[in-house]
Amino acid sequence: MTENNITETLRNLAFELDADFISITDKSCFEDSDYTGNKPQDVMDNLQSVIILGVSLPRGAFETLPKGRGEYTNTLMAATTTLRVIAFKLAKLIEKEGYMATIAPSEGSEYGYWYADRETLKADLSFKYAAYRAGVGNFGMNHLLITKDFGPKVRMAAILTDAPLDTEEKAELPFINDACSECMKCIEVCPVDALTSEGVIHKEKCAEYMFNVLGGLRCGLCIKVCPLNNF
Ligand code: SF4
Ligand code: SF4
Fold it and tell me: Origin, by domain of life (predicted)?
């Protein structure tokens, strides 16, 4: 298959397997000066493309918060499991074409703390930035990806590959969603003041809250209150 055909086949398979979105960026976006995350090139030397897969989450997981934290956490895990299965099948398909593919660590939490470096709280790459550059959405004041179709209530997975796949155009969207300036609900609802109106996130406060105060359950309030969800 040509790179064109592989990309099309991957997209079709992802949707057949119940992904809600799939986007592809090339390695160059992680070299840009506005990117502050870890580089996936440090994991795969000959990286060419990053595939981002996503699913949206059911409304009930948010509407039952905060009492339904156990259910919310389990629903995030179910989304992550679904994405892992889809990513695994796509990775196998890529390798059948003679390329290499591996799936970046991700889990059911809003900011990916569980698999992140424990000091910096950063993952091997920013899935959100890769999706932003592929036009899936832009960022909210909650530091999550606000997808155009679903809002922030999504989970994502990432495949690293040396296959030079067809990529989307660079996003024309503003980096921060326009609606945020008139809203700030996520900042007001955060129980530990991890989010600020200056656009800073104190990840350590959020992680400490989920790791220790909630005993590993996820919080989700800064997603629940966002008016950009398509509930
Ligand atoms: S809750 Fe409001 S400020 Fe926060 S991300 Fe959503 S729209 Fe932006
Ligand atoms: S503590 Fe909760 S509301 Fe605050 S940033 Fe973390 S997940 Fe969002």
Answer: Archaea
Nearest CA to ligand 1 atom 7: 180
Relative to the alpha carbon of 183, which ligand is closest?
A: 1
How many whole angstroms from 29 Cα to the centroid of ligand 1? 25
Question: What DSSP string runs through 91-153?
Answer: HHHHHHTT--EEE----SSSS-GGGS-TTT---SS-HHHHHHHTTSEEE-TTSSEEETTTBT-
Q: Is 211 in the pocket of ligand 2 (CB under 6 A)?
A: no
Looking at the predicted structure, is the pLDDT value of residue 219 above 90? yes
Within the chain, residue ranges assigned H as helices are 3-16, 60-63, 69-96, 127-133, 185-189, 203-208, 221-224
142 contacts 227 by C-beta, under 8 angstroms: no
Nearest to 94 by CA among 134, 47, 54: 47
Distance CA 90, CA 159 (A): 8
Q: Which residue has the tokens 């959405």?
A: 137
Peptide bond connecting 66 to the previous residue in cis, omega within 30 degrees of 0: yes
CA 129 to chain centre: 8
What's the pLDDT tens digit per position in 90-135? 999 999 999 999 999 987 778 878 888 888 888 899 999 999 999 9
Q: Is 55 in the pocket of ligand 1 (CB under 6 A)?
A: no
Pocket of ligand 2 contains residue 206 by CB under 6 Å: yes
Domain boundaries, the chain: 3-224
Residue nearest to atom 2 of ligand 2 (CA): 219
For the Cβ of 195 lying below 6 angstroms from any atom of ligand 2, the answer is yes
